[in-house]
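go over this:
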Amino acid sequence: MNTESYIEDCLRQARPRLNTMLVLMFSEAQLFGQKSQWLASAITLMEPLGFQERATRTALFRLTEHQAIRVERHGRRSLCMLTPATAAAVRAARQRLDIPPARSFAEDWTILVNSGGISAARYTAARKRLLALDYCPLAHNLLARPASYCAGIEGASAAEDHGLASFDVSGTQLAAAMRQPLFGRSEWDLDAADALYREFQQRFQPLRKLLDQHGAISDAQAFAIRLLVSHGYQHCRRADPLLPQELLPASWPAMAAYQTYVALYCRCAGQARRHIQTVTAAAAAPSPAPGVARIRRPLLTSDHVLTA
């Protein structure tokens, strides 16, 4: 397997958005102790993913406009970092990804019920947010999540904030309730999630054998793979209704995809860390001595200039 062409194929198939990959890049660097990046290092770190300098500058400017990225000027140089709100949101999302997608009626559950006390518009907005926090839709007006999941991620106040009634029930009670006509399966789009998980496996599973070979990939390629695997698995999880395994087909591929994600994400960590630290250190090197010509490079237009 040619690793370079493999990464190019992954990029062509996944077509990740540059803005999304930039936020992931900054969050990866933060995990390795690099809370900020000079503009030059941000550009260099995105190059293994096929993003050119001009596109990266444009995306950084747009993320700054949307207050996802903060830029500090240091003379002619620009230091970029995630805003605190963006960094916190990315950390929380990564924590949720690290939780295996295996749920069962053998555990206790927290259920949230819309008893009609809030407007339809407010419930629609609340439901969308709660699904993003890994609640599963057991019925149109009922969401649920394992009780153990709530600790340290989202407190019981989430239900109160949204006007929903919260109940702690055993898995046995929930399983019995699921047999009642109140619960319909029409909302569970399993086909879409199943297809995404299998596509993820087909794309990334071969890499597990490749990484068994010493020196098979460069540090830059390990960094790119780590970002691509993270991006691809997040895409799968967003489509997964995260139902209890008793309600899923026996061949449900979620756990296999999760194991591939964890294996690749962790095994690329050492080389990815080294690549980030090398690029960051090079960009942080002292500026040229006085009298040495230095090129100023605009970020986007003459109206909005950000220099490396």
About this structure: Strands lie at 37-38, 69-74, 77-82, 109-113, 136-139, 142-146, 165-169.
